[in-house]
């Protein structure tokens, strides 16, 4: 199984998420992670979808089917070495009285993670990195007792020197400042 | 005054000019009908109901400008609109209510997407404030139809109507055509627009750019392959008729001497008696065309999608050949077969660009190989089917006699099953755009409403539906629509008292275990008479000719039931999952 990251630019309309994901469902492709948000251009959304698949050909066909959706502006499929990618994870760690103290130095310097919220009974730690780095940190922090753990989907930019938005159709886009 | 001028700003000012008596501020329903008129829509197939009533109230005012045809079931509206679109080349329009009205239409929408038929389906929906409350006749139609529409959209305010309708028509008819579904909430139908109605045609969209003109380098590569080919074979599909590329196709094969064959939906694009026409392809296609697909060195596909009924086992399909795939939909390239030379674009434009680049050729030795297989097929199948010794009439005789009597120029609308394959095999098409059938979805019950829609789309043409006894009972109620219209739609039921194709498969592949395929049929002629349609039954070979004359000479709708051989099989046949060159003659 190879991991593919599919970037989709769409118009930001009701139901577009459904119109995209329904194509994966029909082909029995599971979505490992999905991140959608509006871009710097008003009314344009960017999807980052991660899937595992053993056939590059099938992924290429899927990409062409996504392109067919009327609201879709552009689609790009990448292998992991073609992109810079990251996720963000939040860990809620129990800190009851008498528990082993957190080593903030290791957390900060080795794992590049930060405590972003303090509570009497727990702290919330934010860790940014690849899936692998996040799970390394997970293993490190686990003995402290993880109350809650959540990962965002992957976000990615291509390693190509071009901007993906250069490939968007020409239009009078409005920008957020 | 200024407002009035703005209101009339439209490219086609004529249809709106005499509407100046209409209120300047329209409600959503009036805006909808005015949008349809502006798009040049002449006919709507529909069925009223609660959530679409304001639109029906508006139609009442426009009856002199737009013809609404009341069907008997929403599926009938959908198939009629499909038949209309296929024959007229225009967008078919349906109008139905929410909930069951919409779900009844779903089969036709699914049929239209897979056969690339342009439809705009307007569907009533509960008021915006009731959405998601399980209101009476509320169904999430947008959700239901997402995978089977080219585009769908829910209108929730009257102001959206003109812009969305313009977009709907543009998307439905441009590029690879397909169905567009517009769900309009009742409040949007009732409320007044906040500005005067004006209609601007949609000619482009930021996110949707169908490529019509192919890239020159793609065409050059294709031309090079064609010029170097020793055994080239061209196959064409529905895309040729959709693009109106019949003339260019003929010019190409005549210049290059390349034999050509048709898919089911491509039939009639090239006259069957053309010397370069090799026949049709696929599961029940001709013997030579299927076998030689696996012997050609260059395969040129024009406006087709290499459906599994054409390719059989795709892993053993034309592996020896370099494939040129001329196709408007980029998603079809490499979907089933890998193309050495893809040409993305409209078939007409692609062929026009290709024509000057290809060298004149003859290929007569290669072409004669088809004739060798034709002779075998003719001797073993065609001749015995056309001159049978059976007591009962065979389907092939009926179709061929109909073909002779109509000089191959009628529009044949075939339903789905054995009779469909027989119609495709034995009707001698001489004129393009003459075969309408449900190819991709294989929708039983398609033919009767589609034939009606086709007749509405072009009343000047003789339209004959060929229907099986099973199919006929799926949309039999549309006899009422036909009777009410009075249009001379002709229907032939080839009655074998079986679901023939399923029975054939059970015989061949399930050890003759006939599981629920025999029908106890009603008296079709009495039923037709009940609807006010004349008809008769023909059971004897001697009276077949006279029966067909009676059918064709009637200036009213007419139903002819022909009692045919009960257990006949359609051959040749590529068994399901087999490779095309494994085609069987018996």
From TrEMBL, chain A:
<dbReference type="InterPro" id="IPR002912">
    <property type="entry name" value="ACT_dom"/>
</dbReference>
<dbReference type="InterPro" id="IPR019455">
    <property type="entry name" value="Acetolactate_synth_ssu_C"/>
</dbReference>
<dbReference type="GO" id="GO:0005829">
    <property type="term" value="C:cytosol"/>
</dbReference>
<dbReference type="Pfam" id="PF10369">
    <property type="entry name" value="ALS_ss_C"/>
</dbReference>
<comment type="function">
    <text>Catalyzes the conversion of 2 pyruvate molecules into acetolactate in the first common step of the biosynthetic pathway of the branched-amino acids such as leucine, isoleucine, and valine.</text>
</comment>
<dbReference type="GO" id="GO:0009099">
    <property type="term" value="P:L-valine biosynthetic process"/>
</dbReference>
<protein>
    <recommendedName>
        <fullName>Acetolactate synthase small subunit</fullName>
        <ecNumber>2.2.1.6</ecNumber>
    </recommendedName>
</protein>
<dbReference type="InterPro" id="IPR045865">
    <property type="entry name" value="ACT-like_dom_sf"/>
</dbReference>
<comment type="similarity">
    <text>Belongs to the acetolactate synthase small subunit family.</text>
</comment>
<comment type="pathway">
    <text>Amino-acid biosynthesis; L-valine biosynthesis; L-valine from pyruvate: step 1/4.</text>
</comment>
<dbReference type="GO" id="GO:0009097">
    <property type="term" value="P:isoleucine biosynthetic process"/>
</dbReference>
<keyword id="KW-0100">Branched-chain amino acid biosynthesis</keyword>
<comment type="pathway">
    <text>Amino-acid biosynthesis; L-isoleucine biosynthesis; L-isoleucine from 2-oxobutanoate: step 1/4.</text>
</comment>
<comment type="subunit">
    <text>Dimer of large and small chains.</text>
</comment>
<dbReference type="Pfam" id="PF22629">
    <property type="entry name" value="ACT_AHAS_ss"/>
</dbReference>
<dbReference type="InterPro" id="IPR027271">
    <property type="entry name" value="Acetolactate_synth/TF_NikR_C"/>
</dbReference>
<dbReference type="InterPro" id="IPR054480">
    <property type="entry name" value="AHAS_small-like_ACT"/>
</dbReference>
<feature type="domain" description="ACT">
    <location>
        <begin position="5"/>
        <end position="86"/>
    </location>
</feature>
<dbReference type="GO" id="GO:0003984">
    <property type="term" value="F:acetolactate synthase activity"/>
</dbReference>
<dbReference type="GO" id="GO:1990610">
    <property type="term" value="F:acetolactate synthase regulator activity"/>
</dbReference>
<dbReference type="InterPro" id="IPR004789">
    <property type="entry name" value="Acetalactate_synth_ssu"/>
</dbReference>
<keyword id="KW-0028">Amino-acid biosynthesis</keyword>
UniProtKB/TrEMBL annotation, chain B:
<dbReference type="GO" id="GO:0050660">
    <property type="term" value="F:flavin adenine dinucleotide binding"/>
</dbReference>
<dbReference type="InterPro" id="IPR029061">
    <property type="entry name" value="THDP-binding"/>
</dbReference>
<feature type="domain" description="Thiamine pyrophosphate enzyme TPP-binding">
    <location>
        <begin position="415"/>
        <end position="562"/>
    </location>
</feature>
<dbReference type="Pfam" id="PF02776">
    <property type="entry name" value="TPP_enzyme_N"/>
</dbReference>
<dbReference type="Pfam" id="PF02775">
    <property type="entry name" value="TPP_enzyme_C"/>
</dbReference>
<dbReference type="GO" id="GO:0000287">
    <property type="term" value="F:magnesium ion binding"/>
</dbReference>
<dbReference type="InterPro" id="IPR011766">
    <property type="entry name" value="TPP_enzyme_TPP-bd"/>
</dbReference>
<keyword id="KW-0460">Magnesium</keyword>
<keyword id="KW-0100">Branched-chain amino acid biosynthesis</keyword>
<keyword id="KW-0285">Flavoprotein</keyword>
<dbReference type="GO" id="GO:0005948">
    <property type="term" value="C:acetolactate synthase complex"/>
</dbReference>
<keyword id="KW-0479">Metal-binding</keyword>
<dbReference type="InterPro" id="IPR000399">
    <property type="entry name" value="TPP-bd_CS"/>
</dbReference>
<dbReference type="InterPro" id="IPR012000">
    <property type="entry name" value="Thiamin_PyroP_enz_cen_dom"/>
</dbReference>
<dbReference type="InterPro" id="IPR012846">
    <property type="entry name" value="Acetolactate_synth_lsu"/>
</dbReference>
<dbReference type="InterPro" id="IPR029035">
    <property type="entry name" value="DHS-like_NAD/FAD-binding_dom"/>
</dbReference>
<keyword id="KW-0808">Transferase</keyword>
<dbReference type="InterPro" id="IPR045229">
    <property type="entry name" value="TPP_enz"/>
</dbReference>
<dbReference type="Pfam" id="PF00205">
    <property type="entry name" value="TPP_enzyme_M"/>
</dbReference>
<keyword id="KW-0028">Amino-acid biosynthesis</keyword>
<comment type="pathway">
    <text>Amino-acid biosynthesis; L-isoleucine biosynthesis; L-isoleucine from 2-oxobutanoate: step 1/4.</text>
</comment>
<dbReference type="GO" id="GO:0003984">
    <property type="term" value="F:acetolactate synthase activity"/>
</dbReference>
């Amino acid at each position: 199984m190879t991991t593919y990251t599919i970037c989709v630019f769409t118009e930001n309309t009701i139901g577009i998420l459904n119109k995209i994901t329904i194509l994966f469902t029909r082909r029995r492709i599971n979505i490992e992670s999905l991140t959608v948000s509006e871009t710097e251009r008003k009314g344009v959304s960017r999807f980052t979808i991660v899937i595992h698949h053993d056939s590059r050909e099938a992924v290429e066909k899927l990409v062409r089917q996504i392109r067919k959706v009327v609201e879709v502006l552009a689609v790009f499929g990448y292998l992991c070495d073609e992109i810079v990618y990251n996720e963000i994870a939040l860990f809620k760690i129990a800190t009851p009285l008498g528990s082993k103290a957190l080593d903030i130095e290791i957390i900060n310097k080795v794992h590049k993670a930060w405590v972003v919220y303090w509570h009497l009974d727990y702290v919330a730690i934010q860790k940014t990195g690849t899936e692998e780095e996040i799970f390394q940190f997970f293993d490190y922090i686990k003995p402290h007792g993880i109350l809650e753990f959540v990962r965002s989907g992957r976000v990615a930019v291509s390693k190509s020197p071009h901007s993906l938005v250069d490939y968007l159709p020409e239009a009078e886009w409005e920008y957020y400042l | 005054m200024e407002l009035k001028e703005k209101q009339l700003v439209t490219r086609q000012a004529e249809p709106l000019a005499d509407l100046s008596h209409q209120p300047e501020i329209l409600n959503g329903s009036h805006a909808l009908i005015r949008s349809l008129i502006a798009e040049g829509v002449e006919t709507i197939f529909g069925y009223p109901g609660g959530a679409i009533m304001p639109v029906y109230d508006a139609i009442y005012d426009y009856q002199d400008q737009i013809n609404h045809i009341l069907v008997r079931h929403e599926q009938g509206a959908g198939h009629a609109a499909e038949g209309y679109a296929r024959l007229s080349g225009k967008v078919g329009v349906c109008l139905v209510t929410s909930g069951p009205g919409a779900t009844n239409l779903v089969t036709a929408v699914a049929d239209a997407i897979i056969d690339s038929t342009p439809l705009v389906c307007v569907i009533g929906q509960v008021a915006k404030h009731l959405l998601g409350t399980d209101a009476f006749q509320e169904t999430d139609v947008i959700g239901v139809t997402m995978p089977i529409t080219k585009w769908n959209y829910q209108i929730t305010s009257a102001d959206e109507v003109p812009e969305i309708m313009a977009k709907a028509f543009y998307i439905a008819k441009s590029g690879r055509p397909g169905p567009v579904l517009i769900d309009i909430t009742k409040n949007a139908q009732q409320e007044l627009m906040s500005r005067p109605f004006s209609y601007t045609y949609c000619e482009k969209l930021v996110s949707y750019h169908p490529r019509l003109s192919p890239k020159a380098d793609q065409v050059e590569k294709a031309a090079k392959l064609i010029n170097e080919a020793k055994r080239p074979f061209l196959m064409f599909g529905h895309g040729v008729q959709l693009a109106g590329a019949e003339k260019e196709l003929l010019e190409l094969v005549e210049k290059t001497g390349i034999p050509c064959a048709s898919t089911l939906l491509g039939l009639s694009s090239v006259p069957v008696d053309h010397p370069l026409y090799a026949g049709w392809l696929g599961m029940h296609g001709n013997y030579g065309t299927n076998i030689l697909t696996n012997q050609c060195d260059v395969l040129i596909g024009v406006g087709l999608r290499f459906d599994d009924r054409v390719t059989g086992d795709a892993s053993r399909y034309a592996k020896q050949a370099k494939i040129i795939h001329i196709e408007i939909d980029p998603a079809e390239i490499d979907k089933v077969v890998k193309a050495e030379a893809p040409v993305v674009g409209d078939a007409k434009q692609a062929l026009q660009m290709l024509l000057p680049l290809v060298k004149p050729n003859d290929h007569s030795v290669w072409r004669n190989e088809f004739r060798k297989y034709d002779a075998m097929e003719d001797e073993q199948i065609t001749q015995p089917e056309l001159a049978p010794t059976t007591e009962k009439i065979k389907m092939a005789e009926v179709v061929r006699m109909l073909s002779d009597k109509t000089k191959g120029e009628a529009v044949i609308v075939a339903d789905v099953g054995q009779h469909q394959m027989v119609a495709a095999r034995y009707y001698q098409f001489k004129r393009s755009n003459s075969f309408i059938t449900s190819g991709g979805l294989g929708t039983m019950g398609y033919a009767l409403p589609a034939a009606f829609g086709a007749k509405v789309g072009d009343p000047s043409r003789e339209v004959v539906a060929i229907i099986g006894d099973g199919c006929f009972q799926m949309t039999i109620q549309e006899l009422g629509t036909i009777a009410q219209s009075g249009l001379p739609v002709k229907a032939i039921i080839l009655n074998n008292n079986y679901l023939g194709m399923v029975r054939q498969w059970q015989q061949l592949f399930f050890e003759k275990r006939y599981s629920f395929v025999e029908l106890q049929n009603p008296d079709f002629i009495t039923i037709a008479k009940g609807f006010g349609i004349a008809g008769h039954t023909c059971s004897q070979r001697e009276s077949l000719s006279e029966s067909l004359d009676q059918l064709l000479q009637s200036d009213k709708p007419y139903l002819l039931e022909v009692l045919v051989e009960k257990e006949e099989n359609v051959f040749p046949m590529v068994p399901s999952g087999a490779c095309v060159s494994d085609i069987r003659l018996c």
